[in-house]
Design a protein that fits this description.
Helix content: 25-40%
Largest sheet: 4 strands, mixed
Radius of gyration: 15 Å
Shape: globular
Distance between the termini: 21 Å
Oligomer: single chain
């Protein structure tokens, strides 16, 4: 259901520590587990329709260095039928109120819920507060 994009050679690279020696950095494994559990909760348990994830029916997640400027975001790509999520590669900067994997967990489900919202209505318009309010509520769920 997800394609996780990450770099291994530059500024955007997450920690490449791979304690279980499966060839995938531990942080990326965490991202994949949170994405899968978010899908199970929102789509399978809560019965929301699958989001704006394009013709391939895959949600793209980009793990990049955000320098503490934002926890992440979801945005439509080219049309309202496809979107992507961008999250920080470590959440270690002092600008973050919540750090590390805990910050990634709440950010990823929050942003994933936005992709679901895009599937219902791409542009929030004057109701953008509702998109943020409900995505923050989903973090608590």
């Amino acid at each position: 259901m997800f394609y996780i994009h990450f770099d291994t050679t530059d500024y955007h690279s997450p920690s490449l520590i791979d304690n279980d020696l499966d060839g995938i950095p531990d942080y990326i494994n965490e991202v994949s587990q949170v994405a899968d559990s978010s899908y199970r909760l929102l789509i399978e348990t809560m019965d929301f329709q699958d989001g704006a994830n394009g013709n391939d029916n895959i949600t793209d997640i980009y793990v990049i260095e955000l320098d503490g400027s934002a926890y992440g975001w979801a945005r439509p790509i080219n049309s309202c039928n496809d979107s992507c999520i961008e999250i920080d590669n470590n959440y270690e900067e002092s600008e973050y109120y919540t750090n590390g994997v805990d910050a990634m967990k709440v950010t990823l489900i929050h942003e994933y819920f936005h992709t679901i919202q895009f599937g219902y209505r791409c542009s929030a318009g004057t109701d953008s507060y509702f998109y943020e309010l409900t995505s923050t509520w989903i973090e608590d769920i």
